[in-house]
Structure formats: C-alpha cells, structure tokens
Amino acid sequence: MRTTDPIGHEETAVPGTAAEPAAEEAAGSRRRRRSRTRRVLLGALTLLVLGVLGVAGTMWWAVDHYTGKVDRIPNVFPTNVPESEQPRAAKGGETFLLVGVDARSDLPTTGRDAKAPEWKRGAQRSDTMMLVHLPADHRHAYVVSLPRDSWVSIPGNGKAKLNAAFSWGGPPLLIDTVQRLTDVKVDHLAVIDWSGFKTLTDDIGGVDLAGKHMNGEEALKYVRERYNLPRGDLDRTHRQQAFLRAVIAKTLTKDSMANPLKAKELLDRVTGVVSVDDRLSDGDLRDLMWSMRGVRSGDMVFMNAPVGGLDMIKGQSVVLLDENGSEQLWEAMRNDTMADYVANHSIDRLGASTP
Questions:
Q1: Are 336 and 135 in contact, with CB atoms under 8 Å apart?
Q2: What is the pLDDT of residues 271-303, one digit of tens each?
Q3: Can you name the residues that pair with 150 across neighbouring β-strands?
Q4: Is the residue at 50 inside a domain?
Q5: Is the dihedral of CA 219, 222, 225, 231 positive or negative?
Q6: Per the CB 3.0–4.6 Å rule, which of 181, 231, 234, 354 could disulfide with 242?
Q7: What domain range includes position 85?
Q8: Residue 173 contacts by C-beta under 8 Å, 6 or more apart in sequence?
Q9: Direct distance between the N- and C-terminal alpha carbons of the chain, in angstroms, rounded to an integer
C-alpha cells in the first residue's frame, strides 16, 4: 500500500497505518453491496421461476384432469374396407372429422354428460361435417366444410346425400364415405349434438354473429337455416363456419391459454359437450393443446369443398361436388401443402360477412 507525503512525494505505506483500514473498509462495503444485489436478484428470479412453475403446474393439472374426462366413442373407424378403397397415407399433419349431429332426443347424446347413445339408426343426422386439417408446423388450421346435401356414393347403399351416411351407419359409415370421397385419411373424430351446441354457446356467454349477439337457441337457429339463404346449403355451411370462428375467437385467446383458471373453465365446457374417438388418448389431447396453443381464429382458413352446381335428384335438392377441383384440394391435404393451395386457388372462403 502507498501513501503521499505533504509535498506530494509518494512513499510506501507502513502496514497498520490509518490508510490501510480505510481502503479495506471501502472494499468490504462494495463486496457487501454486490452480495445484497445478488441475493435480491436471486430471490426475484426464484420467485419468478416458482410462479411460472406454479402456473404451468396448474395448467397441466387442468389439462390432465379434463382430458381424462372426455367422452370417447368406441369402434368409430370402418373395418373390412377393401385395400383399393383405403385412403392414401398423409405426408404430414393430422386431419379431424368434426361432426354436428341433429339428435332426435331430449337427452344429450355427446359429451361427458351424455344420457343417450350418440348414434341409433335413423335417430341422428349429421347436419355439419367439416374436415379440419392441422399442418405439421402447427401454425395454422384449415377447415373444409362438406355440404350435408352433397350427392355421394355411400358404401353399400348407392348414391345419397352425405348426411344419410351417419343416419344409416353411424361414425364408421360416415368416415368410410368421407375417406372414399376424398382419399384423405381421417385421423380422429369429434362429435357434438345440438344440445351440446346450445350449452356451449350459453356457457361462454353467447356469440356475436351477423351483427347480433346470440344465445344458444338463437345461434342454433342461425346455423340451421338454409331455405331462405341465397345459396341454400352452401351459405348454411358458411354460417356454421362463422359460428365456429366466433367461438374460437372468444375462447382461444392469449389470456385464456395463459390463465390456469380460464383454461380450466374452457376445458370443462368443451369436455362436457364433445365426444371423440377412443384412439385419441389423453396424451394425444395434451400434445394437441400444447402444439396448437399459439393458433388463433385469424390463423384459420374456412372454406367449402369445391362445388360444381346444384340439382334435383329423386325429388331432392342436392349439391354436386366438383370432382376435378376437389381432387386438388384433397391432394393438398394429403401432402400437407394447404397453404400453397389456398394461395394459388380460387376458393369458396368464409368472408367478413355471412348471410
């Protein structure tokens, strides 16, 4: 240590002089301040980590708890289908068949609180059928409606409207019909009846459609209307898509996915009214929710399958699908190239306004 004489000459400090304790005290003070700062930062970081883990833990408990309560439908996939009629393997992503059922029952037929069978021959019709493709990158979702009046071949039953498949043979016959029609493999099935539709709508506080706030009963009338619409069944499918988009916009928000309480409420509502196939495990549902956590309604594209025209067959008003135009769509779904398809094709897409 060094000191300075009265005229500025520097000289060596003698151990034990007053200069040395003062310097040591200053250094010690700096060390104590740094130590306190580190303790404060470490404490804050620890609280932050514990908070994140607490939120994640609560979220995981909610997901784990409610996925275990989902109503699952056994034996929904067709069997004994000839090899030549099996759908080609997809190159990426997953495709769900979403079905809305008009059940002629006063009791709920789908969801955790179902009191009646989800299918009984002739007792239910599938008034809503959508193929929902979730690409491998998990950044978007593509919803393609299949009009209920589409005139198609139903295995073992000849030509009929598409919604007859569910009525005659339940989920297996509907999935077989859709797979043969599109050559797209249906990975999973989700079904909701109109009772569940109304319940879900009311539980989330209603939805805003066509410039009006609607409760469950009003929304149900809105999506089922078709006779007074300019394009009949085609406008009806867009109404159904508009409803789905409104529900997603209201429920799948950044806040709802980050807030454990709101996530729990959402899971409770959905699992109470929707039934899925028994191949969709709890782990699959958790992975699906996690992978799609960033997708919002604005990341979803809603469209109708390409239509060639309308006709009257056997006294019935039917929709004729455009086979050539449809094949390009189904190929894009199989190849997981829906983004390119949407960018390069004219599609009957859900617009800002719906009849």
A1: yes
A2: 788 889 999 888 887 788 778 878 888 899 999
A3: 319
A4: no
A5: negative
A6: 354
A7: 68-344
A8: 78, 154, 155, 156, 165, 166
A9: 89
